[in-house]
Design goal:
The chain is of the alpha+beta class. It has a single domain, classed as Winged helix-like DNA-binding domain superfamily/Winged helix DNA-binding domain (Arc Repressor Mutant, subunit A, Orthogonal Bundle). It is built from four helices and three strands. The N and C termini lie far apart (38 Å).
């Protein structure tokens, strides 16, 4: 069964909440069900809506979940089994 767009928008913040800030290559390796074009679309949507943030460090873009992203996961009652929230403030 294909993954819904809503589920795609929730998987990345869930990943960032569980594992902390990630580079694009780390996100790609975890999100194998998304092709690169769809992944860019999802990341752009999440950035525009301030669910995630990006920061340039040592020639890599790092993505992290924001307070609003945590609120989104709380709204959908999604909690990773091991919470290791690392926000870029």
């Amino acid at each position: 069964m294909p993954t819904s767009m809503l589920m795609k928008y929730i998987e990345i913040p869930k990943l960032l909440m569980k594992h902390g800030p990630q580079s694009i290559s780390q996100i790609k390796s975890s999100m194998r069900n998304l092709n690169p074009v769809n992944l860019e679309h999802v990341l752009d949507f999440l950035l525009e809506n301030k669910i995630i943030t990006q920061k340039m460090t040592d020639m890599n873009l790092i993505y992290a979940i924001t307070e609003r992203g945590i609120g989104l996961l709380d709204f959908f009652k999604i909690k990773p089994s091991k919470t290791t929230i690392k926000l870029n403030r």
